Task: inverse folding
C-alpha cells in the first residue's frame, strides 16, 4: 500500500472513532471536534518542503504533504491565501537553529534525529479559518486571519497550516491577503524590540533620538513608521539605493553604509537614546559608543547568538555561552537581545492605513499597533 493510501486509511479509522464518540460540537457556527481530523477527503495537501538542510536545491514541491490536524482544542486550521518569507526562513533552510528548535518541537527527545522533515518554511500567513478546536472562542470558520508562525511550527508554504488560536488574529479588512502576509513577522519583531524591550511608547517617544542600523529591510521599514508616528527623531543606515524609500517613510537622517566607514559618519552626529541593530556582525563593537552616556540609553540587537551557539555547541553549552556573552555585554551598557514573541496575538487597529505595493513595504500614515492576548482581543 502506498503512503497516501496508508494515510487515508489511518485518517478514516480516526474519523470513524470520533463519530462513534459523538464528539461533533457546533458553536459560533463552527464545526468543532475534540481531536479533529478535518474533512475526510483531505489527507494530503500541496506544499514546498525541505527534506534536509542546505541551499536552494533542497526545496521540493510536493502534492503529498501531510494535511495538518488539530492536536489541541485551542488550535485552528488556516487555509493559506498568502504566505510571507523572512531572512529567518533562508537561515532555517540552511539549518540555523536546528538544535534548539528540535528541542522545542520534541522536548522529551522521543523522536529520531531528523524527525522535523519534511519541514515547511514560511513564517507569515494570511488566510481563512477552516476549522476550529473545541476551546476556540474568538474565531469561526470563514474568518479572515493573519499570523506570525513560530519557527518551531510547520510554516505557511503549504495549502493549510495549524496554529494555536492565540497566535492568530483577525486580518484588517483594508488589506488584501498578499499585502497582509508581508507584515506579521516583521511587525511583531519591530514591536517586540521597540516596545517590549526598549520600552518605547507613543507617549515617551517624542524627541527621542533613535538610530536604526539596517533600516531599509522588513523590520527597519516597520520600525521607522512606528517611531515617526510617535514623534521620534529617526536616523537610519541603509544602502544608497534605499535612501528614497526610507525618506519616504519619514526617516529624518540617512547614512549610506556603502559610502565608507559608517561608524565615522554616525560618530559626528548627536548621540542616541536608542539603537535598534538589524545588522549584527561587528556593529556592536562601535555602536555602543554612539549612545548617550548615563541616560538609560539602550542598544537592542535582533541578531541573537543563541540559536547559532546551540547549533555549534549543543543546547547546554550554547545556552551557557549565550548567557556569558549577554551578561558580559550587559555590564558595559544597556545591551539587550530582542526576540519575537509569537505567543502575543498581533492586531493592527488601522484607522488610516495606506500601503505602497512597492516591495510589499508599507507606508502607514497613522497606525496603532497592539500586541494583544486573546482576552483583550475578545473585548474589541
Ligand atoms: N530576533 C527575532 O525575532 C528576529 C525576527 C526577525 C528578524 N530578525 C533578524 O533581524 C535582522 C533584520 O531582519 P529584516 O527582516 O529587516 O532583514 P532584511 O529585510 O534583509 O534587511 C536587512 C537590512 O540590513 C541592511 N544591511 C545589509 N547589509 C548591511 C551592512 N553590511 N551594513 C549595514 N546595513 C546592512 C539592509 O540594507 P539595504 O537593503 O539597503 O542594503 C537592510 O536594511 C535579520 O538579521 C533577521 O534575522 C530577528
Result:
Amino acid at each position: 500500500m502506498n503512503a497516501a493510501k496508508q494515510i487515508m486509511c489511518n485518517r478514516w479509522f480516526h474519523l470513524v472513532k470520533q463519530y462513534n464518540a459523538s464528539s461533533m460540537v457546533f458553536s459560533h457556527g463552527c464545526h468543532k471536534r475534540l481531536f479533529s481530523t478535518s474533512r475526510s477527503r483531505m489527507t494530503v495537501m500541496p506544499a514546498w518542503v525541505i527534506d534536509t538542510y542546505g541551499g536552494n536545491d533542497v526545496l521540493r514541491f510536493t502534492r503529498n504533504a501531510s494535511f495538518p490536524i488539530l492536536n489541541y482544542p485551542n488550535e485552528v486550521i488556516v487555509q493559506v491565501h498568502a504566505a510571507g518569507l523572512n531572512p529567518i526562513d533562508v537561515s532555517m533552510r540552511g539549518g540555523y537553529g536546528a538544535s534548539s528548535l528540535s528541542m522545542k518541537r520534541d522536548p522529551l527527545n522521543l523522536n529520531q534525529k531528523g524527525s522535523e522533515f519534511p519541514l515547511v518554511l514560511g513564517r507569515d500567513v494570511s488566510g481563512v479559518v477552516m476549522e476550529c478546536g473545541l476551546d476556540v472562542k474568538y474565531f469561526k470558520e470563514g474568518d479572515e486571519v493573519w499570523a506570525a508562525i513560530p519557527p518551531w511550527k510547520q510554516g505557511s508554504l503549504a495549502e493549510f497550516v495549524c496554529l494555536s488560536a492565540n497566535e492568530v488574529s483577525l486580518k484588517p479588512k483594508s488589506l488584501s491577503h498578499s499585502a497582509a502576509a508581508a507584515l506579521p513577522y516583521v511587525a511583531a519583531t519591530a514591536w517586540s524590540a521597540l516596545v517590549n524591550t526598549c520600552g518605547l511608547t507613543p507617549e515617551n517617544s517624542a524627541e527621542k533620538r533613535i538610530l536604526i542600523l539596517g533600516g531599509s529591510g522588513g523590520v527597519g521599514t516597520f520600525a521607522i513608521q512606528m517611531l515617526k508616528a510617535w514623534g521620534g527623531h529617526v536616523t537610519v543606515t541603509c544602502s544608497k539605493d534605499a535612501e528614497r524609500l526610507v525618506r519616504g517613510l519619514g526617516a529624518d537622517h540617512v547614512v549610506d553604509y556603502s559610502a565608507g566607514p559608517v561608524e565615522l559618519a554616525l560618530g559626528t552626529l548627536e548621540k542616541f537614546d536608542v539603537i535598534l541593530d538589524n545588522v549584527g556582525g561587528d556593529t556592536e563593537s562601535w555602536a555602543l559608543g554612539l549612545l548617550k552616556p548615563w541616560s538609560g540609553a539602550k542598544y537592542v540587537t535582533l541578531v541573537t547568538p543563541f540559536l547559532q551557539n546551540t547549533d555549534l555547541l549543543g543546547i547546554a553549552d550554547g545556552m551557557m555561552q549565550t548567557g556569558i556573552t549577554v551578561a558580559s555585554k550587559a555590564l558595559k551598557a544597556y545591551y539587550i537581545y530582542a526576540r519575537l514573541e509569537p505567543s502575543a496575538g498581533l492586531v493592527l487597529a488601522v484607522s488610516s492605513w495606506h500601503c505602497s505595493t512597492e516591495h510589499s513595504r508599507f507606508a502607514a500614515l497613522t497606525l496603532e499597533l497592539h500586541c494583544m492576548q486573546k482576552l483583550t482581543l475578545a473585548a474589541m
About this structure: The longest helix spans residues 3-20. The domain at 186-302 is CATH 3.40.50.720 (Rossmann fold). The chain has two domains: 3-171, 186-302. Residues 86-88, 186, 189, 214-220, 237-239, 242, 257, 278-280, 302-304, 338-340 surround NAP (CB under 6 Å).
